[in-house]
Amino acid sequence: VQLQASGGGLVQPGGSLRLSCVVSGITISYYDMAWYRQAPGKQREPVATVTTGGIAVYENSVKGRFTISRDNAKGTVYLQMNGLKPEDTAVYYCNGRRVLLGKSYELWGQGTQVTVSS
Fold first, then answer.
1. Which pLDDT score is estimated for 66?
2. Which of 85, 113, 118 is nearest to 7 (CA)?
3. Does the N-terminal or the C-terminal CB of the chain have fewer CB atoms within 10 Å?
4. Closest C-alpha among 62, 50, 56, 60 to residue 88
5. Residue 13: which of 65, 84, 66 has the closest Cα?
6. DSSP string for 78-108
7. What span, in angstroms and rounded, lies between the C-alpha atoms of 24 and 59?
8. DSSP 8-state symbol, 72
């Protein structure tokens, strides 16, 4: 199983980036998919989640600016980030999780760096 995140980079405040997470080895339609981020010196925190049913949930600070989406046929999850702020600077990680017969399964990808700076 592999979760390959890409799309990070350096962007000025107010700019946009689109992160992609290509998942191989599993069928993502069975998984809730999420993006997390970890800033230097801080704990990893959830940013956005999209459930198997397509319901999106966002961390308060990104509501109205970020949009998470999924394409199950392509095995890909996206995070469209608009109106980026310096405080959005972090390593962003793709995550997948499901519960099957009472057992929890969680998958992580490698991170992609997002830096917001002028």
1. 98
2. 113
3. C
4. 62
5. 84
6. EEEE-S--GGG-EEEEEEEEEEETTEEEEEE
7. 27
8. T
CA distance 16 to 67: 11
Q: Which of 70, 100, 98, 76 is nearest to 24 (CA)?
A: 76
Give, in degrees to the nearest 5, the angle at Cα 107 between 66 and 16: 20
SS3 47: strand
At residue 81, the pLDDT reads 98
* Residues across the chain: 118
The alpha-carbon radius of gyration of the chain (Å, integer) is: 14
Within its chain, how far is the Cα of 18 from the centroid? 10
What is the C-alpha to C-alpha distance for residues 104 and 80, in angstroms, rounded to an integer? 28
Tokens of 27: 């069928």
Residues of the chain with pLDDT under 50: none
